[in-house]
């Protein structure tokens, strides 16, 4: 028999990586990472009123929903197998003030939405954001005093708001404000009020990113924001500082950790998973979503394939799940 050994075989030691890539069945058989519907959390935006489905221009396919329509969306999500929703309120401007006081109203928009969703679709999880930015007249995540976002007073307020959200039926509280000490204070407040079973998904590494613009349009804070959020969000240049932030949240009792934004910070997803071993989630934020949609609309990319590839990359980077506006679209694709 003729020896067909090639120089390539000698160089590689007869190890050819392409052997397992030669057919669809072999690629599927050795695939390391899988994306399933169980990995999806769907963020939705809530507004006052009835029968409202209000498109968000900067986020094609995403709408602001009145509570009745949010309940319908929750039922659809549950039918698709999506485990949980993350809800964000677009509060009437006349209810917003310097301290975000409407966050402390038991019957506010976000709490009424939670109660309605849990009553109608009890099997779906509800994750509520507890930052003050939807409630403040200045668009910041905390209380503004003489040009400063004050830490401790803000923490007191969001801990009270977290208890009210849990009272309304929230399954997981997700503090996104990045104030120091907030995880521990919220955990103590929840436990003291009998909500020991309510989890905390910490926005552990929330960066001062340029990717949030469409979200701020969605909750009507874009025109309100005075200055920037660099005094409390993490500098995008600082990975080690972000890891220290996450470590404090773990010590204070966080059940899950979130990286926000997602794709530009895949290294942080990996570092958090390796360092702490807790469930890690990424938020594929509004700017990430909008870029995919815009490029696909212009025919520059295959939007569906890019969408699925990006979500798979979150999983490969160690994420246990992804908050993504693509969730219903992805769930339908996976079902097919």
What does this structure look like?
It is a single chain. This protein is an alpha/beta fold. It has a single domain (37-335), classed as Alpha-Beta Barrel (TIM Barrel), CATH 3.20.20. The chain has helices at residues 7-12, 24-29, 67-80, 109-120, 151-168, 182-192, 213-218, 239-252, 266-276, 286-297, 303-316, 327-335, and strands at 40-47, 53-55, 63-66, 84-89, 125-129, 143-145, 148-150, 172-174, 199-206, 256-260, 280-284, 321-324. The strands form 2 sheets. An 8-stranded parallel beta barrel has the order 1-4-5-8-9-10-11-12, surrounded by 9 helices. Strands 6-7 form a two-stranded antiparallel sheet. Helix 3 crosses helix 4, helix 5 runs parallel beside helix 6 and helix 10 runs antiparallel to helix 11. The N and C termini lie far apart (48 Å). The relative contact order is 0.13. The mean pLDDT is 96. It holds the Pfam family ALAD. GO terms for molecular function: porphobilinogen synthase activity. Homooctamer. This is Delta-aminolevulinic acid dehydratase. Keywords: Heme biosynthesis, Lyase, Porphyrin biosynthesis.
